[in-house]
Structure formats: C-alpha cells, structure tokens
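ingest -> validate -> predict -> emit
validate: passed (alphabet ok, no gaps, 275 aa)
predict: started
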Amino acid sequence: MNLVKAELFKIRSTSTWWILGLVTFVLWALTLLINWAGSTVNASAESTEGLTADQAEQVRVANEAVNVASNLYTSGQFFGVLMVMLLAAIVVTNEFFHQTATTTFLVTPRRESVVLAKLIASTLLGLVFWLVTTLLNLVFVPFILDALNIGSQLGEPAIWRAVGLNALAYALWAILGVGAGVLIRSQIGATIALSTTYVIGYFGATTIFFLLTPRIGDWFGKLQVLVPPLASQLMVSGTELPGNPPRWVGAVVLIGYAVLAGGLGTWLMKRRDIA
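emit:
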C-alpha cells in the first residue's frame, strides 16, 4: 500500500497528469459533439410514440435508441483511454527520464513489487479519468437525448453495462500503458510511438477491414476485434451489433493484451539492468 501511495504521489507531483487531463476534457467535449451530430434517431424516435408497426419494428427502434444512447454515454473513450495509456507509460518512463530508477530499486529491491504498485496506481488513475468523463456524460447526455426525443434511456440495463465496461476499458489501457513504458524507456519515444500506433493503427485497421472484407468474406471482418482500439469499442457496445462478434469477445481480447503487457513488463523489469 505504501508503494502505491508513493506512485500516486509521484504522479500528483508532476504537471503531466493535469495537462493530459485538460487535453482529455477538450477531446471529450469534441467527441460528444461529434457523436451528437452523428446521431440519427429523430425519425425512428418519433415512430415509437404510438407505434402502429410490427412488434419487430418496435424492438428494432428500441435497440437503435439504446445504441445511440450508449454511444453518447461512453463519449470520450477513444481519446480518453489514449491519454490514460500515455500517462501510465510516463509513470514508468519518468523513472528513467529523471534518473530515479536506481534509487527506487535500491529502496525496494523486489522490482515486481514496484511494477505492481505502478500498475495499481495507473489503474486507479485510469478509473479517475473514467469517472470524470462518465459524470460529465451523465450530466449532459440526457439533454441531448431529450433533444433527440428518445428520453434519457437510463432505465435500460444495457446503458449501465456499457458504462461499466467502459470503466474496464480505462483500467485495461492503463495496464497496457505500464507494459509499454517498460518496453520503451524513452519518455518522448514512448509518447510518440504509442500515440502513432494507437491512432494510425485504429484508422488503418478500419480502412483495411472495410476494403478487404467484401472481397475476402465476413469472417475476415470479424478479425478486427484483434485490434486493441477496435476491441475496446466493441466491448462497450450497448447491444450486440449485427455482423460483429459478441462484445465479450472484445473484453477477452483487451484483457489478454493487458495481461500480456503487464506480465511482460514485470518480467523485463526484473531482468533488465537499471542504469
């Protein structure tokens, strides 16, 4: 517990966390506006009031409303988890940038304890980012949904599952960040590499799967869940989306990456020379 407190103090004593926090806030607001602009439920929502179509049509409209609502209630995840990953990586790379790694491991010779403390502290920080963005969403999204004439949707269990899985996503990306920080000791190098890989990897993978799936087959399109950012988005989907794997598959994939990154990071930290 003392090690975790020490790691949290290290985070609080630098300006990095609040700088990334401000960036996250700006990107959250931008994402919320984009999601709002991309919501297309006005016509469907109006048909739910005194619906005269089949029961199947009612279910379709209801599912569409839940999908839109869950997307809005998890606004900010795409850039939020990126900021959390970068901050978690910096928790590790700061030790080498400020040349405090030697002192840290002299005070605590069991390196796995230090890495575990960094993992816990980073996870807690990720959950703080999730909590702040979620509270902001819970404040503003109901107004947006009312404007779309579909109500707050807060009575739907799928919404709360999406919010809860969003918390898991933030925690797992924090673990990924610590593992990446061990692999890439350079603070600048880690920041550039992770940002580039995350953003370009997401849009690159989306483009590749979009172009090749019609030619190769639907089975190929389902492989996109192996790309971490896409797995993260699938995991928080409010309902199972046609043509996509179940969202639990996204959770399993992301957990697998987190366990691999955390385990590999701990193993490397125990065996590398600290100088």
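Residues 42-51 have pLDDT under 50 and may be disordered.
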